[in-house]
Structures are given as C-alpha cells and as structure tokens.
Design goal:
This protein is α+β, with helices and mostly antiparallel strands. Helix content is 38%, strand content 10%. This is H15 domain-containing protein.
Length: 104
C-alpha cells in the first residue's frame, strides 16, 4: 500500500512544509497566497499551527529562501510563471442609419 505521496520525503520543519506547499500548488505570476498555503498544509499534512506558519514565512523571506509579493510567496530560484496575456477584443463601430417606419 505504498503510494507516490507516501514515498516522498515528508517535510519536517515549518519552512520545509511551506516550501513543499508552495511547490505543490498551481503557480501564478505572484506566487501562492498565504491562505492557499495554510489550506494546503491543513488538508495534505494535517498541520494548522498559525503562529508557527507566520514565523516560518517570515523566516523564509528573511533568509532569502522565499520571495514575497504582497500576501503571496514563491520559492526563490524556481521558474517564474509568465502572466497570461489579455485577450484582444475586436471592437467594431455601429453607425446609426435612417430608421424606416415612423410614429403615427
């Protein structure tokens, strides 16, 4: 009964758990939000010590292991995801012509 998740080395420190959570989330240009990290750790690792997570995030940023942009975090050295390009919308002008028919 060994699955690929059980074969992976389980993170031991809070910072390792945070890095594990960030790398296993879908990446966005800004990184992974603090709330997404908390939700992932609670669901996957059954870990929800809010104080330790806050300190771990702070330590990760100060040590240079994590990059912070607002309330989102990214592992330093991981590839940056390019922001999605906005879809160009074609705008056509509609000219108002003479109206046929009238009012009585």
């Amino acid at each position: 009964m060994s699955s690929s998740k059980q074969k992976q080395k389980q993170p031991k420190t809070v910072l390792e758990k945070i890095v594990f959570a960030v790398r296993n989330q879908p990446q966005t240009p800004n990184g992974v939000s603090r709330s997404a990290i908390v939700k992932y750790l609670k669901a996957e690792l059954n870990y929800d010590n809010a104080t330790a997570l806050k300190q771990g995030l702070k330590k990760g940023v100060s040590s240079g292991k994590l990059e912070q942009k607002g309330q989102s975090f990214r592992v330093k050295g991981d590839p940056v995801v390019a922001p999605p390009q906005e879809e160009q919308i074609q705008i056509t002008e509609v000219k108002e012509g003479n109206k046929k028919g009238g009012t009585d």
